[in-house]
Each structure stands twice: as structure tokens, then as C-alpha cells.
């Protein structure tokens, strides 16, 4: 048993025990991905396609069944018929069993020539490999979707925390201004403006909560969790400031993509399939042979007649020319598809690499102390505003700039994670952890 399967099994045991006591399930990223790989229904269904393809290989290797035919059986014999025959037909071993009864039977066996069974099995074997690559491609796509949801969920968590901090600060201001309004020290208009800002921030936080629940719903479906479970994903490493992308060779990434990407291997397998199909179609030019053996009792000049024969088509008109030509065209077509997929793959990897590098360059150009400086400046503006050193308009202008710059910082960090996952997806393997 692999480590992933063992870990997933242990997780399922622990989760089953915890779910009996409560409806809240707490997972980290690694645990949730292990559970997803084990329990996803789409992956389970796609695995069955591999078994179906393997079953088709078994079927292709089987010999055709012999055919048995029994005919010319007379259920009775009249005196007139016997008179014409001139004598009675003796029964078996001189007894009454089979007396005056004629019958015949024949056995036929189709013999496939030119290695058709072997070539058909080879053709179906390629289908097995294609089924495996279809599974790997589905796994690759679902894993990318799953990780993107986890990344988005953590981004929303960070954004919600920022909204909550802003909401707490604005609530303190509105409470203070409410007291000042009651004392007549400030106008009610300033209080209403702050209250409107509080409502606006609260709505933004509520919208984040709605999107968060939608993402959790998708994650639960991908992990096959009950709808009643309250899922919590613990945050893990969200950004490593020293992403090793600079140490990764771009040409090596392209080579790895050609080796690991299932969609590229599928294009190559299609070309192999077309070549095997051509071999099979060419074998169909050779006619199969049917071997025959027959027995006739009382219907020939011999009472007990054994006969042997052979039958085969004569390939005068149909020599499978059309299917052979179609297979040849399929080979040329598959070569073009492989080349197109190769060009697309190379351009996708190069674009993802450069996008990641630009995202890292943008983030590293930001002063590492800028985030803390923004918070410190906001605290200063808040104190000055409470002490009436600046106007409400000045405070709101800075608050808009503060919120926008905070969003830029979050987006810059989030963009790197997205670009890392995109590069890993396009290469087909986790080149950057």
C-alpha cells in the first residue's frame, strides 16, 4: 500500500470517528488532498474505464466459438416413404433406436488468418494505455481545480480578516462619533457617513462569506463529504518569498512537460493506435478460413457419411481498400495532432514560466516593510481624526488608498501561488512545491 493510500485510510478512520461526535471536520491542505484522491467519485468512475479496456483486450484474444448445426431430422417415416426407399433404415446397433430416422449434423470452426487476433489484441492494448492516460488527465485537471479552490479559500480568509480589522476600527469610530453627536460636538452628517462606511465594509465581508461557503461546497463534493459537515481548512504555507523559479531551467520544464503531461501522451498514443489499426486493417485483406466437418445418416449413398470441407472468401472485389486508406490517413492526421499539441505545450509552459517570473518580480519589488507601514499610517490617521486634526474627507480618502493598497499586496501574493499551480499543471508534475 502506498503512503498516500495509507494516510488516506487513516484519515478516513479518524474522520469517521470525529463525525459521529460532531459535524465539524478540520483538515489541513495535505489531509484534504489525500482524502480527495481517495474519495472523489469522478476518479473512481474513470478507473473503471481502465478495467473495461483491459476486458476488451481479453475478449480480443479469444478464439471464435465453433458452430454446431443439426438438420435433416425426420420426426416420422410413412410406409410410402419406406416403399420408395426400398428398405428400412436400421437403428443403432441393430436396435429400434434411430430406426427409419435420418439426421445430419455439422461442425464449423472459423480460423482467423494473418494474425488478426494478435493484431486486434495489440490494438485494444493501446486502448488500455489511452484509458490510463485519460484517467491521469482527469486526475491532473481535478487536482488543479482542487488546489485552486484551496488557494482561493485561503485568499478569501485573508481578505475576510482584513475586512474584519477594518470593520472593528470603523465601529470604534462610529461609537465614538455617536457619543459626540449626542453631546453636540460633531454634526450628525459625519456620523452618518461613518455608519455608511461601516455598512459598506460589512456588506463586503458578507459577500466574502457567501463565496467562501460556495467554495466549501465544491470541496466537499470533490472529497465526497456529507452536505451537513461543516468543513474547515487550516491554513498552511501560503507564500514562500524565495520561490525557486529562477533555478528552474525553462528547457527542462518543456522536456518534463512532454514526458509527464497526459494530454500530450494521449496524442502520441493516438498515433500508435492508428498504426496498430493499419496493421489490423491490412490483415483483414487476407480471408479467414472456415473448417467444416459433417455427418449424415441415411441421406446419402452411405448410411453413415462423414465429410470434411473448407470455406473462404475470394478477395476479388473487396480487399478492404477503403479501411486501409482511412487508417493511413489517420496516421498522417495523428502526426499533425502530435505536432500541434507539442507546439501548444511549449508555448503554454513558456507563458506560464514568464508569468510566474513577472509575478515574483512585482512582489519582490515591493518594500517588505510597506505592509506594516500602511497599518501604522492608518493608526496615525485614525488618532488624528479622533483628535480632530484632520477632516472626515481626508480620513476617508486615505482609507480608500489604504484598502486599495492592501488589496494589491494580497493580490500580489495570491498571484504567485496561482502562477505556481498553473506552471505545475502545465508541466504535469509538481516542479515547484
Outline the structure in words.
- Keywords: Signal.
- The protein has two domains: 1-63 and 121-236; 240-285 and 320-433, Outer membrane efflux proteins (OEP) (Up-down Bundle), CATH 1.20.1600.
- The two termini are 24 Å apart.
- Strand 5 and strand 6 (304-312) form a beta hairpin.
- The protein has eleven helices and six strands.
- The longest helix has 68 residues, at 116-183.
- The chain has helices at 3-21, 29-39, 41-60, 79-85, 116-183, 188-222, 250-260, 262-283, 321-365, 370-386, 392-427, and strands spanning 24-27, 67-71, 103-111, 230-233, 289-297, 304-312.
- It is α+β, with helices and mostly antiparallel strands.
Mean pLDDT: 87
The N- and C-terminal alpha carbons lie at a distance of 24 Å
Q: List the secondary-structure elements in sequence, H or E.
A: HEHHEHEHHEHHEEHHH
Q: Uncertain runs with pLDDT below 50, 5 residues or more?
A: 17-21, 239-243
The multimeric state of the shown protein is single chain
Helix content: 55-70%
What structural category characterises the helix and strand content? alpha+beta
Which word captures the global form? Answer: elongated
Strand order within the widest beta sheet: 2-3-5-6
Topology overview:
Elements: H1 3-21, E1 24-27, H2 29-39, H3 41-60, E2 67-71, H4 79-85, E3 103-111, H5 116-183, H6 188-222, E4 230-233, H7 250-260, H8 262-283, E5 289-297, E6 304-312, H9 321-365, H10 370-386, H11 392-427
Helix pairs in contact: 1-2, 2-5, 3-5, 5-6, 5-8, 5-11, 7-9, 8-9, 9-11, 10-11
Amino acid at each position: 500500500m502506498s503512503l498516500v493510500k495509507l494516510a488516506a485510510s487513516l484519515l478516513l478512520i479518524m474522520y469517521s470517528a470525529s463525525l459521529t461526535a460532531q459535524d465539524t471536520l478540520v483538515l489541513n491542505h495535505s489531509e484534504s488532498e489525500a482524502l480527495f484522491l481517495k474519495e472523489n467519485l469522478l476518479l473512481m468512475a474513470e478507473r473503471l474505464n481502465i478495467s473495461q479496456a483491459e476486458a476488451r483486450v481479453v475478449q480480443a484474444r479469444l478464439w471464435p466459438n465453433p458452430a454446431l448445426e443439426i438438420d435433416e431430422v425426420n420426426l416420422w417415416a410413412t410406409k410410402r416413404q419406406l416403399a420408395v426407399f426400398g428398405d428400412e433404415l436400421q437403428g443403432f446397433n441393430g436396435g429400434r433406436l434411430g430406426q427409419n430416422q435420418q439426421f445430419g449434423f455439422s461442425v464449423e470452426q472459423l480460423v482467423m488468418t494473418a494474425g488478426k487476433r494478435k493484431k486486434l489484441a495489440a490494438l485494444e492494448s493501446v486502448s488500455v494505455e489511452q484509458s490510463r492516460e485519460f484517467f491521469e488527465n482527469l486526475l491532473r485537471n481535478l487536482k488543479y481545480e482542487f488546489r485552486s479552490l484551496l488557494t482561493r479559500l485561503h485568499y478569501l480568509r485573508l481578505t475576510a480578516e482584513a475586512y474584519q480589522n477594518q470593520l472593528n476600527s470603523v465601529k470604534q469610530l462610529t461609537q465614538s462619533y455617536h457619543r459626540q453627536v449626542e453631546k453636540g460636538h460633531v454634526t450628525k452628517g459625519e456620523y452618518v457617513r461613518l455608519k455608511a462606511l461601516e455598512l459598506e465594509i460589512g456588506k463586503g465581508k458578507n459577500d466574502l462569506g457567501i463565496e467562501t461557503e460556495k467554495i466549501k461546497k465544491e470541496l466537499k463534493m470533490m472529497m465526497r463529504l456529507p452536505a451537513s459537515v461543516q468543513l474547515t481548512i487550516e491554513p498552511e504555507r501560503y507564500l514562500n518569498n524565495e520561490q525557486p523559479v529562477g533555478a528552474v531551467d525553462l528547457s527542462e520544464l518543456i522536456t518534463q512537460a512532454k514526458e509527464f503531461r497526459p494530454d500530450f501522451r494521449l496524442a502520441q498514443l493516438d498515433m500508435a493506435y492508428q498504426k496498430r489499426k493499419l496493421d489490423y486493417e491490412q490483415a483483414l485483406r487476407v480471408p479467414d478460413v472456415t473448417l467444416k466437418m459433417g455427418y449424415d445418416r441415411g441421406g446419402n449413398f452411405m448410411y453413415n457419411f462423414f465429410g470434411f470441407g473448407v470455406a473462404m472468401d475470394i478477395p476479388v472485389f473487396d480487399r478492404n481498400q477503403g479501411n486501409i486508406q482511412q487508417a493511413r490517413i489517420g496516421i498522417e492526421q495523428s502526426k499533425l495532432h502530435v505536432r500541434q499539441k507539442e507546439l501548444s505545450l511549449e508555448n503554454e509552459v513558456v507563458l506560464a514560466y514568464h508569468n510566474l517570473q513577472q509575478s515574483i518580480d512585482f512582489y519582490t519589488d515591493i518594500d517588505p516593510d510597506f505592509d506594516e507601514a500602511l497599518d501604522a499610517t492608518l493608526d496615525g490617521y485614525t488618532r488624528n481624526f479622533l483628535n480632530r486634526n484632520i477632516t472626515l474627507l481626508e480620513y476617508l480618502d486615505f482609507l480608500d488608498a489604504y484598502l486599495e493598497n492592501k488589496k494589491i499586496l494580497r493580490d500580489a501574493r495570491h498571484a504567485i501561488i496561482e502562477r505556481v499551480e498553473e506552471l505545475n499543471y502545465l508541466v504535469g508534475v509538481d516542479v515547484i512545491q
